Structure formats: C-alpha cells, structure tokens
Amino acid sequence: MSNLSILTRLSILSVVLLAILIGSNLFLDNRLTQNARTIANEAVLVSRITTANAASKSFGDLKFWLADLAVSLLTLSERNADEALKSLQEKLEELKVYDPDRVALIDQELDLLMDAALLAVDAYTDERRVIGNSLMAKARVHIQAIDEQLSSIVDELEAESRMRSSAGLASAREAVTLSHIIIIVGAFVGLLLTILVLRSIRTPLSRLVTAMRSISKGDLTVEIPAAGRDEIGEMAQTLALFRDSLIERDRLAKEREEAQAEARGAQEKLLEAIEAVTDAFALYDADDRLVIANSKYREMYEHLGLSIERGISYEKIISAAVEKKMIVAAQDNSEQWLKERIVRHRNPTGPYEHYRADGRWLRINEQKTADGGIVGVFTDITEAKARETELGEMVDRLAEARDVAMKATRTKSQFLANMSHELRTPLNAVIGITEMLEEDAVEEGDEDLIEPLQRISRAGKHLLKLINDILDLSKIEAGKMELHVESFDLAAVVRDCVDMAAPLATPNNNNIDVSLPDDMPPMTSDVTRVRQVVFNLLSNACKFTENGTVGIAVTLTDEDMIKIDVSDTGIGMSPEQLERLFSDFSQADSSTTRKYGGTGLGLAISQRFCRMMGGDVTVESTPGEGSVFKVSLPREIPSEPQLGPMEPTSTTRDSADGKPGEAMESGGNVVLVVDDDPVARDILSRFLEAEGYEVATAIDGVDGLEKARALRPAVITLDVVMPGKDGWTLLKELKDDPALKDIPVLMVSIVDDKHKGFSLGVADYMTKPVDRKRLLTLLERYKLNGSGGNVLIVEDDGATRQQMRRVFVSEGWRVREAVNGRAGLLLVQDAIPDLILLDLIMPEMDGFEFVDSLKTIPEGKGVPVVVITGADLTDDDRKRLNGGVEQIIKKSEDGAPAFLEEVRRYVSQHLSARTATSGETE
Fold it and tell me: Furthest-apart CA pair in the chain: how many Å?
C-alpha cells in the first residue's frame, strides 16, 4: 500500500465504493425487470383464463339456447343461439394462440354439435321427436366433449397461473434478500478499505512525526521509517537526508578537530625532523620571507649579527653574507654576484655549489613550491669534494693503468700473431725435414731411424695443435673470432668426426656407438666450429676410456635445438674436478695431466665456441662410471645478409649435348662455376660448354660448397668478391675438406663492366707447415701435359724453400727461388713461371704487395699463385686480397675473349693433368 501515493489510494477507495453502488443498483434493476416480466406474463395468463371462462360461459349460453330452440322452436332462441355460437368462436380464436390443438378439437366437436342440434330442431319441427331426441342425445355427447376440453384449458391455465405467481413471489423475495446481502457486503468492503487507507496514511505519518520530534531533540540515532513511493516516503527520504547531513556535519566537525590535532602533531614532528636533518633546511613563502628553518641553517649565518627568524627576507640574509665576505665567488664583483644569486634563488634551475671563506663547500638545491615559495636544502660537501679529488686522481691512475693494459693486450695479440708465423716457420722445417728423412729411411730400409723420426713428426704436429689452440683462445678473448655461417648436414659431420676418432679409440680397445635421427634437417651454423667441438669431445672420451664404450647421440628438440650427447664409460670426475673442468689450461687434476697429457684448452675452447653459436656445453659425471658431455646448439643461427640478386639453386644443368634435366656425373669433365653474378655465370657456362666441358653453376659460396661435395668436379672457378661467404672463405673450406682439397680452384672476380672485366687471382691456398702429400698432389694438378714445368718459390725461410725445392725437383720441375716479394718480381720479369708458391709474411715486400705487383705484369696475371703462410688469414687480409684483385681488374682493358681464352687454357691444363694422373694410376 505504501508504494501508492495517497491520492491514488483515495481514488482507488472511491472507485471501489462507486463500483459497489453501481453493481448493487444494476443487480436490483435486473431483478425488478425480471419481476416485471413475470407480472406481465401473469397478466397475459389471467387474460387467457378470462377468455377461457368467457368461452365456457358462451358455450353454456349456446347449450341453453340450443336446448330452448329444440323445445320452443322460436326464432329468438335461434338468434340467441347464433350470438352465443359467434361469441364462443371469438373466444376460441383467442385461445388458439395458447392451445391450438384443443381449440381445433373443440371447433370440430362444435361443428358436429351444431350439425346434430340443427338436425334435431328440424326433426322436432317435423314432429319427428324420436329422431329429434336421438339427435339431441348425440348432440349431448359433443357438448360433453366440448365441456371437458374447455374445462381442461381453464384448469391448465389456472394451474400455470398459480405456478407463475408462486415463482414470481419467490424471485421477488430472493431479489430482496440478495439486495440486502449486497448492501451489507458493500458497506463492509467500503468500511474495510477506508480503514486500510486511513491506516496506511496515519501509521507512517505518526512514525515520521515521532522521528522528527526525536531529531529535533538531538537524537540522531532514531530510526527513520522506510521510505515508500508515496508522499510520506518522500518526506521520510527528506528527513533521512536531513538527519544524515546533521550526522555528516558532526563527523566533519570531529574529523576537523582530529585533523587539526594531527596537523599540530605533524607540524611538531616536521619541525623535529627538519631539526634532525644533517643538512641546512629553509622554507620561504611567495614573498621570499622565511617561514621555517632548522638550526643548521641558522648556524650557517650565525656570524652575520642577524636574527634568523620567521619573516626575514632571503635578500637581507644573503646581502649580509656578501658584506661579511663569507662567499669567495662574491668577493671580486659582489653586486653582480648578489644580483645573479637572488635571481637564481627566486627561479631555481637545479643544484649548484659554492665555496665559502671558511673553507667549506656547500651544495645548494632549491625548488619552487606550488604556492610560489622556495624550499632549499644546503648540504656541506667539503668531505665529498675531498673524496672527489682523490677519486679523480684514482681515475687518472686507472686510465693510465687501462692504457697500459690495452697496450699490453695489443702487444700480446701482435706477439701471438707474430709467434704464429715464427713458430710455424721452424715447425715447417722440423716437420718437413723429418718427413724427408723418414722417406729416405723408408727407401734405404733403416728401421732404427723410422720410429724416432715418426716420434719427432708426431711431436711437431702436437706442438702445432697446441699453437692453434692458443691462437684460437687468443682470438676469442680479443673478440676477433668470427663465425662463418652456412647450411650443412650435421649427420655427415658427426660421421666424419667418428671416422677421425676411430684411430684414437683403437689403442684403448674402445667401441664407438653412434645414434643419429633418420630425418635430421640441415643445420645452419659454423660447420668448422661444430666439427671442432664434436671431435674434441670424442677424442677426450676415447683418451680417458679403456676397454669401454664411447657413444654419441644427436637429437632435435621441440624448441629447434640440437642436442649432441657424447658419453663414455671412462674414469669419470668428482664434483671438485667438474668445477674447474672448463677453465683455461686446466684439467681434472695434476695426476690426470701426468697420465693422459694435454694442455687443458680443448674443453675451454669448445665451450666458448658453443656459446658463440648461441648454445652451451655441460657435463655430468660419476667417478669410476664415466661422463656425459651435453652440447646444446640452435639448429639455425642468423647468417650474414646476402647482397645482390638471388636465383634458385639446382644440382642439375643442361648437359653439353643439350639434354636438359640430366644430373651430372661427379668428376669426369665437369667444371663448377661459382659466381653470384648471373651474367658472369652465363658467359663462363656458354664458353666452357662450347669447348666440350660439362658445366654446373652455383650462385654463392654456400651453394658452391654443396655442389662441390655433391658433384666432385674436375675444376672449380671461384669468384673472389661475393656476398656472405666470399671466395677466400670458400677456398679455405674447400682445402679443409679432405674430399675436396685436391680439386683445382681458379679464383675469378668481376667488377665494373661485367662482360669484360674478368681477371684471374690466387689459384690455391696452403698453410704451414706444408703437408708433403698435399704438395705432391698440387704439383700433379699443375703439371703441363703430365710433365713438370717452371715453378717460382717466394719464401723467406730457407728450410721451407729447401723442402719445397726437393719435392719439386723430385717431380721433374725446374725451380727458382726468391727470399722476398721484390726478388720474386725480378725473377717473374726475367721469365714467366708456370706456377708460383707465395708466402704472405716476408721482409721488404710481403705476399700481398707481391700479388698487387704481379697483376701489373701482363704476362704474369695468368700464372696460378698458391698462397703458403704460417699465419691465419683475417677478414682484413681477405679484403686486402680481394681489393687487390678489384684494382687490377679496373686497370685491365682486356676484353672478354682474352679472358675466356685464359680460362680455357687453365681448364684444359688442369683437366689434362687430371687425365694424365688418372691414367698413371690405372
């Protein structure tokens, strides 16, 4: 009820009462209408009864006058009988509506009666009384039937009249009774609704009045009646808001008092905190007057004779300090300094420092507040300044030490670079002469010398490996170790390493188990470093295992990481030994070094190689049970960006006879052209095919290495300048591969006009100490028509020259020697050699300058040059060699035919040498 407004409730009450009144009136009107109909029906019934009685009376008159007529035979009787008959017929006609069947029966009997009566009158008139009496007797039968029918009609009408009268009276009584009930019920419902409406108004209103009286007396905890949707509810809401506002006012007043108390406490604490600060502190308002300061700030100006109290201006304080000459910087130009200081104080830009006359340094840090005031912190930094001075001196000393260390590092790097040449040069003599003596001993059958000479050779090669490890470590520490990224078959690399490790496993009676996945995808990384890591781990496992098993397992993880696990059943290691396992020049312990030997660099270098390639190597070991070295490397590491046009690679090319799609047979008459320029490849291919050679092409160094391994060509022409992996890098990898090192390689480059700017470069590359067998193979390759030629050896080391001279002479070559590049050029000018062996590092003119100068001699630019050096070629060296080739090409004005003729001559020479060699072998 409270959800309805008061007006709505009163309206509903009025509507209900009006509905009760209208309903009762409509009910009574309906009942009265029904009673009126009943009375009207009774009137009709009474009228019928009257008509029936009248018909009965008329029939009685008719009977009388007919009887009188039969006796008197008077005309008057006949006339009265006719009138009575007529009256009877009229009444019967009226009754026909009520009961037509009986009226029809009466009419029928009446007709028979009249016929019998008239015949009887006629018989009496004719004095035939017997007949008349008989007819009258017959007429009485009809009279009796008519009387019965009329009596039946009257009785039925009277019975129906009584029944309807009783029903009407009962309906009238029922209507009166229902009217009384409706009036009573309506009055009760109206009274009940009135009470409910008044109660719904009075009860909340009296509660609201009670709450208002309580609030007016100050009781704000009184309960406000629940707010409905009526006017009283709105009053309750208003009263609740009023009470809440009074409560909020009291709460705010209480909070204000508490806040004021807290503010007073906080202010006291702030004053205490400011006072406890070790730095001087001051706060100035927007008018630049002191608001608060601690004792440290007042002590700063205690000799001014001013009272540093609230309200004093900063300008007055600083002016007095300048007057007393307390600030050193202000002593020369006090007015200008004071003006600038006040401007900086009022518009602070950050901390600054100044020196005071008492020898103290102050750091002043001022900031502007939101209301325009200035807060300043003044820190005594005298001790910090002293430490800063000491630190500066220490930094200078450290810088000097750093420069000394950097110089020492450069000296060490230069020393190691020089030592690589200086150590390899005597090693070249030791190993070379030892091999020659061993060869002589074998030929002479001197068994006593063979074994000692083999020991010397093994010791020299061991020393060479140690030098290489130290140089690798030096490069890694100096950050100069570079990765040469390419795609390769890891399974093939692992199998090669296993083959190389097999001789190490045999002396200790070890077996090597290999587990490789069947569907290993290509790996993109530095194949040389991966091979070095795998072989190092395998050789270590074979060295520290006896009568056991060395295993290598390769797996590919879901994260595209390659796992290489090298396990053994050897001596194992303790946790203490594992801690120093990957340290430089360190092994498990001294006893291990004495028993098994080694420098302790292999694992350290392997770990650093793995980390350079984005992986790592770890170890798990149990003493007496064995060890497992776990290498984790990404399957792909980013390679250097490739420049220039790229085209699809293919392992097939149209054969010389023009049949496309046929795979080339390895070796035979196949020439592999490696060049990144499609025009250069096309020119070389067309020219060589016209000469009858089969040609395969490769678009870059990576593709060239794959094609070389797949096809094993007779000759390789190699561009010097290529994106990604240049010609020098590919040449070194070809010579490092045992299966490819004997293939002749012609270095070719192209710049400027690519149709005619070709030139030949270095033909081969070897490192010291020179391998005798490889040198012999090289000679076979460069023999002219299967026989020796003229060779020029440009080398400053006499032992190396002697070793190579002996080999060349034994093979039928004519040898000339030069101790440096300048002397070599003079010999070239005297007579053009068929082959040049060149050391890069020599006095007066080194190998690089020699190559540059050789290209200026028209007849000398086609001579194959085999580089022999004891130092590793750096990228700068390669760029220098490449640059030399480019420079010569730019100077060259030879057209394409001259160049192609030069290529044809070299290819023909190499293939003829190859054919002759294979023929001798057969």
Answer: 210
Reported as type and span, the H/E element at residue 354 is strand 352-355
pLDDT tens for residues 607-625?
888 988 999 999 998 888 8
844 by Cβ neighbours in 10 Å (0-12 / 13-18 / 19+) ranks as exposed
Cα–Cα distance, 607 to 615 (Å, whole number): 9
On whether the CB atoms of residues 910 and 789 are closer than 8 A, the answer is no
By CB atoms closer than 10 A (0-12, 13-18, 19+), residue 41 is middle
- Contacts of residue 63, Cβ cutoff 8 Å, sequence gap at least 6: 143
pLDDT at 639 over 50: yes
Q: CA 227 to CA 245: how far, in whole Å?
A: 17
SS3 (DSSP) at 622: strand
pLDDT tier for residue 306 given thresholds of 50, 70 and 90: confident
Residue 337 and residue 329 in contact, taking contact as beta carbons nearer than 8 Å: yes
Task: Give pLDDT tens digits for 425-469.
Answer: 677 667 777 877 887 888 888 888 888 888 887 777 777 777 776
Q: Give dist(CA 726, CA 874) in Å, integer.
A: 13
Task: Pick 42 or 652 by higher pLDDT.
Answer: 42
pLDDT tens track for 461-513: 777 777 776 766 666 666 667 787 888 999 999 998 999 888 888 888 999 99
Beta bridge partners of 568: 550
Highest mean pLDDT among 105-109, 204-208, 864-868: 105-109
Average pLDDT of the chain, as a whole number: 77
Burial of 428 (0-12, 13-18, 19+ CB in 10 A): buried
Omega before 660 within 30 of 0, i.e. cis: no
Looking at residue 874, its pLDDT comes to 59
DSSP 620: E
- DSSP-derived letter for residue 894 is -
Residue 697 has a pLDDT of: 92
In the numeric block, which tokens belong to residue 813? Answer: 């070559």
User: How big is the chain, counted in residues?
Assistant: 922
**Cα→Cα distances 162→40, 42, 165, 167, 855, Å:** 14, 9, 5, 9, 159
Percent composition of the chain: helix, strand, coil (DSSP 3-state, to 5):
60, 15, 25
User: Based on the number of CB atoms within 10 Å of its own CB, is 53 exposed (0-12), middle (13-18) or buried (19 or more)?
Assistant: middle
Mean pLDDT of 170-198: 81
CA distance 275 to 286: 23
Instruction: Note the pLDDT of residue 620.
Output: 92
Strands 835-838 and 758-760: unpaired
pLDDT score recorded for residue 39? 76
Of 510, 470, 504, 500, nearest to 602 by C-alpha is 470
Please state the pTM of the whole predicted model: 0.37
Is residue 816 a contact partner of residue 827, using CB atoms and an 8 Å limit?
A: yes
Q: Nearest CA to 120 among 107, 141, 138, 106?
A: 138
DSSP state of 289: B
First to last CA, the chain: 124
pLDDT at 910: 53
Torsion of CA 636, 638, 642, 646, to 10 degrees: 30
